[in-house]
Amino acid sequence: MGGFSLAEPCHECRGRGLVVDDPCTTCHGSGRAASTRTIQSRIPAGVADGQKIKLKGKGAPGENGGPAGDLFVNIKVSPHKVFGRDGDNLTITVPVTYPELALGANIAVPTHKGPSVTLKVTPGTRNGAKLRVRGKGATRRDGTKGDLIVTVDLRVPAEFDDTAREALEQLRKTDSGDDLRNDLLQQAREG
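User: That's the sequence. What structure does it adopt?
Assistant: C-alpha cells below.
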C-alpha cells in the first residue's frame, strides 16, 4: 500500500499565514469586529413579521480583499392601531348595533390608506360574523392585494333612554316565548 498525505490549515494562524502575538479583546486577532452602520434599502411589499430579507453585497467586507458578504435583515412589522394582519389579508373589528344585525344595514368600513367602503350586513347576521371585502387587504409581492376581513361586533349600550327601554320591553313581550336555553338545560340533565 502506498503512502498518502493530508493537508490541513495551521492550528495557530488558521491558514491565514499570520499570527497575532497580542490579540485585542474585540476581534481576538481576526481583524474583524462587529460594527453599526445605517443602510437605506427598499422593503418589498407583502413582507410579513419575522421574515428575513437578503441584501446582496451589503454585509461585511471579505477577508484578504474579498467581496462583501450579504446582509440578512429580520423584519419586525409594527402593529397598526385599527387593522390586524392574517397572511395577505387585513382584519378589522367593526362595532354594530342589534337592529343593524337583526334587520340588516349598510355600514361604512375604513380601508387601509384608502377611502372607506360600504358593506352590506344582511338581516339576521350573527355577532362575530366575518365579512369579506375583496382587494382591500395587504399588497402581495406580485402587486395584487389580499382581502379585508371585517368582523362585526355587537355593542350593547350601558344605559338606555326611556324610549329605547320601552322598545326593548315590547320586543321581549313579542318574543315567541320559546326559551332558547331549554335544549341546553335538557342536555345538561341527561349528560
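The beta strands are 52-55, 71-74, 84-86, 89-96, 105-111, 114-121, 130-133, 148-154.
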